[in-house]
Design brief:
The complex is a heterodimer of chains A (about 525) and B (about 575).
Chain A: H1 2-12, H2 15-20, H3 32-63, H4 81-110, E1 117-124, E2 127-131, E3 137-138, E4 141-144, E5 149-155, E6 160-164, E7 169-173, E8 179-183, E9 189-195, E10 207-213, H5 215-226, E11 230-231, E12 234-235, H6 238-248, E13 274-276, E14 282-284, H7 287-295, H8 322-334, H9 354-368, H10 371-375, H11 393-403, E15 429-431, E16 437-439, H12 442-450, H13 469-473, H14 482-493
Parallel strand pairs in A: 1-5, 4-10
Antiparallel strand pairs in A: 1-2, 2-3, 5-8, 6-7, 6-9, 9-10, 11-12, 13-14, 15-16
Helix pairs in contact in A: 3-4, 5-9, 6-8, 11-14
Chain B: H1 29-33, H2 38-66, H3 81-123, H4 132-155, H5 168-171, H6 176-203, H7 216-248, H8 261-295, H9 302-315, H10 331-359, H11 368-391, H12 393-399, H13 403-433, H14 439-466, H15 480-510, E1 552-555, E2 560-563
Antiparallel strand pairs in B: 1-2
Classes of the chains: A alpha+beta (about 525), B mainly alpha (about 575).
Chain lengths: ~525, ~575
């Protein structure tokens, strides 16, 4: 054991790196030169003062040492105001210079340029997920080189810390709000993102790879990342896709696949087995049970496992993403000797399964488009996931209500939530925190969805509504605002005061150009 | 006033130790547990505090041992990721408990509680603190709080980190409420001690001891008390809110209920940053006492040192936001906090220059307390300078929550507060127990500890700048060299502390009898016998300049210093200096 440990240690030792690391890692973002300069400035000032102080302590201790001949101190003054003022002023000036330099760079770090590319960062125990403007999802952060990237970050559970030391950026990800930061990589490279804010059991393993690439290559990467159901153009069996999702969605943090104990039940021999719930009932783990456990983890609890730990994956497994659910449940089935018809998803595992096939075709579509167009893939024409048949806007709105996550805060049945219920919202008066009362018309609804910070409705917490929807629903990439209109149409169908003023300027008919 | 400063026996000269002293005054266990004697309460604080330090220290050794290998040497999985995470939870509990014990049960209470209680009335020439019963209550609140902390650990431990950040601390299954209740009680202990010391310094100063003739340790304790009284209630309320959030779901910190998790951080640091000064100011006070005594020279710049303590205490209230630069508070607010952080750095620098100027042209005796005081200067300098770069906004973005921060605050807390405490313990040890320790072994122990601390924490500064985040149960293999050196340093520290425990215990039973004034100190505690009698002083000590050593000579017979012409200052006529 001793020998292996020592040889293991020597294997990792890299003395050149150890000595060089007295300085910061060589940064590769536009922030790095400023950070590096101030670090060096501080570093040499610190070396100077440390050497000075240690030198004085040592030399005084030797030179003025108590000896037989030197039992009392020499006569010297016990105060000197001009000396005191000098050594107050000099440190003050030095720290003010450091303050000013740090402040200047920080203000730059705080203001993302208007032409930034947007990436949505989702942090959860204990994985990172990145969503790109074309809808691609990946667990590796792909960054374009020489293009500012605005990172809109949300957490599903607790605080996390988004930190890439080599790119000189860090920001906490606070649940309940959208945190933003930005970065511009200056040349291609591979880096590591580590979680810096303590978040529980898997904190130290909550990493992601970061790849900065020049533009065409960056686009290929995110297009490839958009499609997990295929490899080299060939569809994969669902269980294989499920295995990927097991890693990328972070399931592996709590669920083992070899029967060993974790925070959640092991997936080994889970499907088809019998489990006892906290309410004493015994159930057989079939497809319906697994589906509930994944999409609504709070509803039922298996005995012996803590409540409230499993994050709600919600829209990642429902609606147009239901194929993810099939994939994961197929993977769970592939790990179990008790797997049976009842525990398996309603579609076959093979890539030929009817429903996954259409879905995978839809997901594969961007791969066939030229890369330049792929970035703009999210076109104004509503892509309806369930098939080619066009549907009215308000039906699309009802789907978006779930897939965009509105469902998390807004109810449609009049029940109170974090945000106002959509039942009887359109056309009704709304009291603002400014004291004014306005009617919830089309303009009001549009502003509240796109720029939630501009008005606050009384009784609704400020700053909770994400402000990223303006990038997903409006702006240059979405000139027709089809999805936005779909949502507002949906809100109108829920109200008995819907009128011309509250409805979008386009009719509620299937979205066409 | 004379009744407060001891029995007045008229012309009786200062007498050597009489058979009865505070240690032998009452021999039953009850006479200790229910004592109102500030010295005995101080000793009880010392015993409990050192016990807590032992537990916290052993947890630190567990942490360092775990980090010898990247995947974790003690807590690691059996192959699957899920099993690793389950194992890492134990590591998280260990570092949480280490932090809580060291901060709330050692660093904050130990200097005021142990050394402050013992020395403060003696330095004032007083019989006791102003409110002896409150003092005892404060000790027991500390003990009950510590027991609750242990109870929560026995029940199932806490894995939140000592900062209890929400919403993790709301969601975790661990015993947060019990632990937080314990800290809440320790907080009240701290408030009571602060009130007691402030009143004592205001009301029980002997005639002739004006504010600017107090020993500097009293200025430091006074400034500390100010923070304890004003800041601790805030963390108390915060912890009550946290308990209510967990038990009742009031929705103040929990984002799922519309609460704001960042609000908790603001509340927490509103106390916990000033708390850093609760820890460091008394240590600076001790160093300000030791340096002049062992340089045989008057302290340089008395007023600047005294007022810098007060300045640190006051400005220290306005810098809490520098802990949360990257949590999304507005950039303009960050700028204000950064600016004030740099302002508060200056008074600390002033103290260092004044200590050095005190040594200049002195006659420096490198006995153990002085060696620790000099270690303090060096370690605190490194701790302070690394704090400067963390205060710079753009640098904090790349260093926040890394091992650089861990290294920085251990240099300040261990190299500063703890070394200051150890310096004070060695300085007042002869007075406390009437026994000397083995000087040679103590000196070597100090050297070994100094090396151990630097070996432990300097690599942490380097690995943090290189990119390793804190609170990691496992890490990337490229960080391993630093981690190994750091762990070796921690083992060296353990050797030093075991040696210290050995020679101090030996001194208790076998040590040479201590003289009245072994180091030649000029403040009042050196005028009474070692150990002092129950009532502190046989005669009313006369107040002079506490840093005047010109009329002292070493007496080889008693192995201590005596005044050639005892200060006979009329109580009403302050002596000019």
């Amino acid at each position: 054991m001793g020998v292996t440990m020592i040889s293991q240690m020597l294997g990792h030792m890299n003395f050149g790196r150890t000595i060089a690391a007295l300085w910061l890692p060589h940064g590769d973002s536009t922030f790095s030169p400023g950070v590096q300069f101030l670090w060096d400035f501080w570093y040499w000032i610190s070396v100077f003062f440390t050497v000075l102080i240690v030198g004085l302590v040592v030399s005084f201790s030797i030179r003025y040492r108590h000896t037989k001949d030197r039992t009392i101190a020499e006569n010297s003054p016990s105060h000197n105001n001009s000396l005191e003022i000098t050594w107050t002023i000099i440190p003050f000036i030095i720290v003010m210079v450091i303050f000013a330099l740090g402040f200047k760079d920080y203000m730059n770090m705080d203001s993302p340029p208007a032409n930034s590319y947007n990436i949505h960062v989702i942090a959860q125990k204990w994985s990172w997920t990145f969503v790109y403007e074309n809808g691609a999802i990946s667990n590796t952060l792909y960054l374009p080189v020489n293009k500012p990237v605005r990172l809109n970050m949300t957490s599903k559970d607790v605080l996390h810390g988004f930190w890439i030391p080599d790119l000189s950026i860090q920001r906490d990800v606070v649940p309940g709000r959208v945190m933003t930061t930005w970065v511009e990589a200056t040349h291609p490279g591979k880096y590591i993102l580590q979680c810096a804010e303590y978040c529980g059991d898997g904190h130290s393993e909550m990493r992601a790879n970061v790849v900065a690439e020049a533009y065409p290559k960056f686009q290929h990467q995110i297009v490839a990342a958009a499609n997990i159901f295929e490899e080299n153009g060939k569809p994969l069996p669902l269980a294989t896709v499920g295995k990927k999702l097991y890693v990328t969605l972070g399931c592996l943090g709590c669920h083992s696949v070899d029967g060993s104990k974790g925070t959640g039940p092991s997936w080994k021999n889970l499907a088809g087995s019998k489990e006892v719930l906290t309410n004493g009932h015994s159930v057989s783990v079939d497809y319906a049970f697994l589906k509930t456990m994944i999409t609504h983890p709070g509803r039922v609890l298996i005995k012996g496992f803590p409540a409230g730990v499993m994050p709600s994956y919600g829209s990642r497994f429902t609606g147009k993403n239901v194929k993810n659910l099939y994939a994961v449940v197929w993977y769970i089935n592939s790990l179990s000797k008790y797997s049976n018809k009842a525990s398996q998803p309603p579609v076959p595992n093979e890539s030929g399964g009817a429903e996954p096939a259409t879905s995978s075709k839809a997901a594969a579509a961007p791969a066939t488009v030229a890369p330049a167009a792929a970035v703009k893939a999210a076109s104004p024409v509503a892509k309806v996931p369930s098939g080619p048949k066009p549907i009215p806007l308000h039906v699309l709105g009802a789907k978006l209500y779930k897939s965009l996550g509105c469902i998390g805060c807004h109810t449609v049945n009049g029940q109170p939530g974090v945000g106002p219920t959509w039942k009887n919202l359109a056309g009704y008066p709304q009291k603002l925190t400014t004291g004014k009362t306005v009617i919830a018309d089309y303009k009001f609804l549009r502003t509240m969805i796109l720029d939630p910070g501009t008005m606050d409705v009384v009784g609704v917490p400020a700053g909770v509504m994400p402000n990223m929807y303006k990038y997903q629903l409006s702006g240059k990439k979405h000139p027709h605002e089809t999805k936005l209109n779909a949502l507002i149409w949906y809100i109108n169908t829920l109200s008995n005061r819907s009128s011309k003023a509250t409805q979008p300027p386009v009719p509620d008919v299937p979205a066409v150009k | 006033m004379t009744t407060l400063t001891g029995n007045n026996f008229g012309d009786t000269p200062v007498v050597p130790a009489k058979p009865d002293n505070y240690l032998t005054h009452g021999k039953t266990i009850g006479s200790w547990l229910l004592t109102l004697d500030h010295k005995r309460i101080g000793i009880m604080y010392l015993v409990v505090g050192l016990l807590a330090f032992f537990i916290g220290g052993m947890l630190a050794e567990v942490i360092r041992t775990q980090l010898l290998v990247p995947q974790g040497l003690i807590f690691h999985g059996t192959g699957s990721v899920a099993s690793s995470y389950a194992a890492y939870r134990y590591y998280n509990q260990v570092f949480t408990l280490h932090g809580i014990i060291m901060v709330f049960l050692v660093l904050i209470p130990i200097i005021p509680g142990a050394l402050g209680n013992f020395a403060l009335p003696l330095l004032l020439g007083a019989k006791d603190v102003a409110f002896p019963k409150l003092n005892l209550i404060s000790f027991y609140l500390y003990v009950v709080g510590a027991l609750l902390a242990i109870l929560s650990t026995v029940l199932g431990a806490v894995d939140t980190g000592w900062t209890f950040y929400t919403p993790f601390s709301i969601q975790t299954e661990s015993y947060v409420v019990v632990m937080v209740l314990g800290i809440f009680l320790v907080g009240f202990s701290s408030i009571f001690t602060g009130i007691n010391f402030m009143v004592t310094i205001h009301k029980l100063r002997p005639p002739g001891m004006t504010w600017f003739r107090m020993p500097l340790f009293l200025w430091a304790i006074y400034s500390t008390s100010l923070i304890q009284v004003a800041a601790t209630p805030v963390v108390g309320i915060t912890f009550v809110l946290l308990m209510m959030e967990r038990v009742m779901g009031i929705g103040i910190f929990n984002p799922a209920l519309g609460g704001n998790p960042v609000l908790f951080q603001e509340f927490f640091w509103f106390y916990s940053h000033p708390a850093v000064y609760i820890m460091i100011l008394p240590a600076m006070g001790i160093v300000s006492e030791i340096i002049p005594v062992f340089s045989r020279k008057h302290i340089f710049g008395y007023e600047f040192i005294a007022l810098s303590s007060l300045a640190i205490a006051l400005i220290g209230f306005l810098v809490w936001g520098h802990h949360i630069f990257v949590n999304g508070q507005s950039a303009e607010l960050d700028a204000v906090f950064s600016f004030l952080t740099f302002v508060v750095a200056v008074p600390s620098a002033i103290k260092v220059w004044n200590w050095l100027a005190t040594m200049y042209k002195g006659a420096i005796v490198l006995k153990t307390p002085m060696l620790y005081a000099l270690s303090f200067i060096v370690l605190f300098t490194i701790g302070g300078l690394t704090g400067v770069v963390l205060g710079a906004l753009s640098e904090d973005v790349v260093l926040h929550d890394t091992y650089f921060v861990v290294g920085h605050f251990h240099y300040v807390m261990m190299g500063g507060t703890l070394i200051g405490f150890i310096a004070g313990l060695h300085y007042w040890w002869p007075k406390m127990f009437g026994r000397m320790y083995n000087e040679r072994i103590a000196q070597w122990t100090c050297v070994v500890l100094f090396i151990g601390i630097n070996l432990t924490f300097f690599p942490q500064l380097m690995v943090g700048a290189d990119g390793m985040p804190r609170r990691y149960a496992s890490y990337l293999p490229m960080y391993q060299p630093y981690m190994i050196v750091s762990t070796v340093g921690a083992y060296i520290q353990l050797v030093a502390f075991l040696s210290m425990a050995g020679y101090l215990l030996h001194s208790l039973f076998r040590g040479k009898k201590a003289p009245v004034n072994p180091w030649g100190g000029g403040s009042l505690e050196w005028e009474t016998s070692s150990p002092p009698p129950h009532d502190n002083f046989e005669t009313t000590p006369s107040v002079g300049d506490p840093y005047d050593y010109t009329d002292m000579v070493f007496d080889p017979v008693t192995n201590g210093y005596v005044r050639t012409e005892p200060q006979q200052v009329p109580v009403a006529a302050p002596q000019a200096h």
